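fwd from M.: "can u put these together and see what the complex looks like"

so here's what she sent:
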Amino acid sequence: MTTTQQQVSDAPVATDDAATAKGAPVRAMALALWVVVGSLLAYGVAQTALKASALFA
Amino acid sequence: MRWLDKSRTVAPRGYNRWLVPPAALAVHLSIGQVYAFSVFKNPLLDRFGTSHTSVAVIFSMAIVMLGLSAAFGGKWMERNGPRKAMALSAVCWVTGFLVAALGVAVGQLWVVYLGYGLIGGIGLGIGYISPVSTLIKWFPDRPGLATGLAIMGFGGGALVASPLTAKLLETYAPTPSEAIVPTMLTLAAVYAVLMTCGAVTIRVPAPGWRPEGWTPPVPGTNRMQSHADVRVANAVRTPQFYLLWIVLFTNVTAGIGILEQASPMIQDFFPAVTAATAAGFVGLLSLANMGGRFVWSTTSDKLGRKRTYIMYLGVGALLYGCLAAVGASAVGLFVGLTFVIVSFYGGGFATIPAYLKDLFGQLEVGAIHGRLLTAWSAAGIAGPLIVNGIADARSAQGVTGAELYLPSLVTMCAVLVVGFVANMLVRPVAARFHEPVVDAAVVTPAEPVGVGATTEETR
């Protein structure tokens, strides 16, 4: 590993707040994307499981 | 276009690393459609009135381009970051669909080759490798879980695209061949949105970031986990790279041996099995393929990568032997054995980036992974050739039933033994290939990084 430093944790609060505010829309979008990809995967698995159930019919 | 720059993707302080996997999944779910291409096969045959081989070339071209673009685009991707790579992948993948739809509309098959096969194939390769090294950097404590999550999406992509495409082909026109163009345009629109969302939300950790409470293992505790980085130019000069190439090649070849012939194989083994039941068997194997990617790759974090491949290749060879010896005795046994074999196939794909990270470090793991994927392209040609060649020869001799497949199964068993030996020969990479280690004492402590901030790494 070329870099082994831990991120500094005692940064000024204002910087933290600004970064958090800037990151909020991205967090919301990433959470929404979790829902979308999770739903898509669930749809695919459910459809395939239905198809696979023919094996045990 | 500066928002595509690597510097704009650095995560803000306190960013939850669990917000990164959906970006990777969005891309892999989209490009995973390639494994559902067979749904287009019959409509394309009707539309062009051509041979099966002419249509099969579209898929083969896409897979060959996947290997080539991953091999040659990996270094570019490492330099430019995951967002630019995901955006390029989205442009190529969506353009591939649009050009292919144009080819279908004007009745020119070569335009479909150019679109889906060539341009789309480039999107496949760049998209496949783009999130892998980013996820490894976010999950240095659980790289197997990270790569399993992303690459599971590729397996899941076909599960989503297959029923969706069938539904669209059924809905848009009275016959599927007339519905190809609107179906391709719809898929292009869906994938454009999904992949763009992935590119927008992807974030790389700030330099020096590490998970809270986690400390890197002390050098020497696990010899198979490197604490140094190896660049791609040096990695391809090590024997470890070629041993892992053989490992991936043999694992994929053996898996394709089952997947390629799943439906006719179960019907030949058990004449009572109907075509509908065989389709159910194919569905079950798809679940094994996808589940294996996540479950076995995650397990490799505990078991160790070398031991995991000992399982994939050693136990896999035994299972192939059992299939040849007693597979025809009961349907349940046949299904159980093939389920585990295919789960090992999926697991092999998902665990290889973590194995590469263990051996070569994380600095250029995405580029090294890209080079290694040429093994996939090679296996994609060798696997079906072996299985179909042997089955055709046996069929010409008048052999039927389970006997038709016995030489193929024994050959696959031997192929896995070769991979097993290659894996056993893997040793830690020699120190002469390592990048010089920066002394921690002289590294400037990482500054708090906001969204879009320029950092030492990205300057």
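replying to her w this: Residues 13-52 of chain A form the longest helix (40 residues).
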